[in-house]
Amino acid sequence: MLQQLSIQNFALIDRVEIDFNNGLSVITGETGAGKSILLGALGLILGNRADHSVLKDHTKKCIIEGSFVLSNYALQKFFDDHNLDYAEESILRREINGNGKSRSFVNDTPCTLEVLKKLGVQLIDIHSQQQTLQINDPSFQLKIIDALANHSDLLKEFKLSYMAYIKLKKEIQEFQINLAEAKQQEDYLNFQFDELQKLNLKAGENEELEQEQSRFANSEEILRNLSFGQTVLAEKEDNIIDQLAALKQVLAQSEKFDKDFAELLERVKSSLIDLQDVASELESKAQLFEYDPERHQFVEERLGEIHRLQKKHLCAEADDLLEVKEKIEIELLNLTNSDGKLEQLEKELEKLEVNLKNQSDLLSSGRLSVLKDFQHQVEETLNQLGIPFARLVVNHEKHVEYTKSGIDSFEFLFSANKGIEPSVVSKTASGGETSRLMLAIKEILAQHLQLPTILFDEIDTGVSGEIAEKMGTILANMGKQRQVISITHLPQLAAKGAHHYFVYKDDANERSTTQLKKLTAEERVAELAKMLSGATTTEAAMNNARELLQE
Questions:
Q1: What angle do CA 33, 129, 380 make, to 5 degrees?
Q2: φ, ψ dihedrals at 297, nearest 5°
């Protein structure tokens, strides 16, 4: 529950500290005194967005702190999941500086605004006039029914299944589009693969062919060079081999007289052997070398085909064509297997659909099971609140397609008058009837939700007198189970509070400021009397106020 609220430098508030208690607390005050300011400040520590316009003095920070008692509300896991220090008495703080930047804290640990908001909705349910209008929203109506059905875990499981279903469905759609496009290219891919398969290129073949092409193109010069080599080495008069042989004999004679010539002799012998081998190989190459025009034409055509496909597939090297061929082969293989993969994905989708149906059927069953009692309890409460012929009918339809909330659609139809068929709330209910309808629903919800605090902002709009008193009784009864705070303008309802707070505007200084105080017993009588009689408080109004409090 909300234990204390501290507000500094917010709107018309310099500094206010308010201690709250169990049971029903009422807040009253003149129009414009600042009741909405309190709601705005409380909203900030519950995660609402703010800017620098909320600051009373732009040279100072705005600081809002709320102290909450969290025992018995199973919030330890939330704190652990968000790396926050858990304490049974926890403090939520919001700081806003002059340029509008804000920081959020839970027990002095910085946190994001999103985390603050997620925690806030588990601490306080603020019912405003805007929320009363939400009674016409089908999604809000569904949330009410889900809360009564008490199947939050099942709903979470369904949402996870639904997200997986939507994700897989999208994946299948994209796969089918890509497959259709690929199928259109399949003939061309086959043509490309057949070209490369027919080429039957071997690694390094291009280099070998280019070398062979070079030999054919320069065959005459090669033969001429071979002939020259043979002549110089062994055929002409005074050829190199004969001269080396003569040198060898001279050195052999000299070696007999001087052993220093032995090394030179060996080197000449070695050179002579090498040159004889070279001459022999030149002769052999000359005999074997033969220009083959057919082979030459084949090499030219082969290289031409390789270079054409290189250019076609934008390959810098001929061997890159081998990678291109492999890639095309994989694409064709994937196309061959794609039908099987699509079938597998569709089977997975069918399994998810079966799971979704089972879960949505359980959700529908749970929702439908609470409708009869819900309608009866609402009508019974509205009867107490002065609408004896109230009828609430909840229509149920099923969607054609799954949504994130299941397959159900509900619509609240209401009638406040005898003989009038129920219709949508916005068309049949007045402002006061809508307020009473919402209170009846909130009373039922309070029995199913583990909210520490419920705050009603003028739930009594459009009602007065005896009905306001009965509204107060309902709120007081709700306050026996949890903390209830009600901002009201009706004395009959205010009298039902166990605690009474008064908001007022102090105009004593140069600037007006909003103040708030908890009323004593006598102050409370005076405030109720003023609410009953207006600015001039009569003795009769004072007595009436005392009677209201005694009741």
A1: 125
A2: -65, -40
Amino acid at 350: E
Using the structure block, give the residue that is written with the tokens 């600042």. 34
Contacts of 431 (CB under 8 A, 6+ apart): 461, 462
Helix (H) or strand (E) holding 134: none
Residue among 484, 164, 112 nearest 349 (CA)? 164
Contacts of 91 (CB under 8 A, 6+ apart): 65, 66, 67, 68, 105, 106, 107, 108
- d(CA 217, CA 303) in angstroms, rounded, equals 14
Q: What is the pLDDT of residue 249?
A: 86
What angle, rounded to 10 degrees, do the helices at 152-199 and 320-384 form? 160
For residue 162, the 8-state DSSP code is: H
First to last CA, the chain: 27
Distance CA 471, CA 460 (A): 7
> Which two three-digit tokens encode residue 231?
């002549």
DSSP symbol at 551: -
On average, the pLDDT of the chain sits at: 88
For range 421-444, the mean pLDDT: 90
Q: How confident is residue 339, by pLDDT bands cut at 50, 70 and 90?
A: confident
pLDDT value, residue 80 = 94
Phi and psi angles of residue 447, each rounded to the nearest 5 degrees, phi first: -80, -15
Contact 91, 104 (CB under 8 A): no
User: Among 47, 1, 53, which residue's Cα sits nearest to residue 24?
Assistant: 1
CA of 459: how far to CAs of 43, 454, 525, in Å?
18, 12, 22
Kindly give, in sequence order, each residue whose CB lies less than 8 Å from that of residue 59, ignoring residues fewer than 6 positions away: 98
Classify burial at 12, counting beta carbons within 10 Å of its beta carbon; exposed 0-12, middle 13-18, buried 19 or more.
middle
Distance (Å, whole) CA 343 – CA 357: 21
Please report, for the chain, how many H helices and E strands are present, in that order: 18, 15
CA nearest 248: which of 226, 271, 230? 271
pTM, rounded to two decimals: 0.69
